Amino acid sequence: MAFYFGNLVKNQNLMKKIVYHIASSIDGYIATPNGGVERFLMQGAHADEFQQSLNGYDTVLMGRKTYEFGFQYGIKPGEPAYPGLHHVIVSGTLQFDSNQQVQLVNDQAVEYITHLKKQTGKSIWLCGGGHLAGLLAQHQLIDEVILKVNPIVLGQGIPLFAGLSSPLTLQTAQHKQYKNGVLLLKYEVIKSIDS
C-alpha cells in the first residue's frame, strides 16, 4: 500500500520513494548488539499488514548485516531474501556476482541509489540497517519512515540511524495502535530547500 503526501516537491512525485519500513524498540533500536530480533513481536495484525504492504514495493534495499541475517535461514550470497522484489545490497566487503534479482553495490552507493530513485516503478523498501539508513538520511534520500514500534526497551543495540550528523525533520502522516501493543508510526521526511 503506497501513501502519498501533498507537501512533496512536484518533480519528486516522478521519482521512486525510499521508505524506511522497520521494527524498532521504544528506545530506538532495530536489533540487539549482535543483530538479533528475537525480542520483537513477529505475529499479530501488525505482521499481517506488514506482509500485505510489501506489495507496494518493487525493490528492497539493505546493508550487509541485514542481508547476512538471512543466511541463517538458508539464503546464500546472491540469492534474494524476498522473492518478487529486486534486491540492492550495499556492502564494501561482500563478494558475489550480481544477477537479475540481486545487485551488489560495493562503492558509490549514494550515486547508485540516487540513480535508482529516478527509475519508474513502485517504492523502494529500505529494510535496514542502521548505518545504511544513516547514510541515506544524511544525503536526504529517504522519503518516508514507517516504524513498527514494539513495546520493549532494549537499552543497547543497532540504532535506527547510525552516524547521522545532522537532524532529520519528520512530519507525522499516520499512526495506529494494535492490540498487542505495537504502534505503527508513519512519517514524511521534510527535505531541506537546498536538496
Automatic annotation (TrEMBL):
What GO terms in the biological process aspect are recorded for it? riboflavin biosynthetic process
Q: Which GO terms describe its molecular function?
A: 5-amino-6-(5-phosphoribosylamino)uracil reductase activity
Q: Where is the Bacterial bifunctional deaminase-reductase C-terminal domain?
A: 17-184
Q: Give the range the annotation lists for the signal sequence.
A: none
This protein is called Riboflavin biosynthesis protein RibD C-terminal domain protein
Q: What organism is the protein native to? A: Microscilla marina ATCC 23134
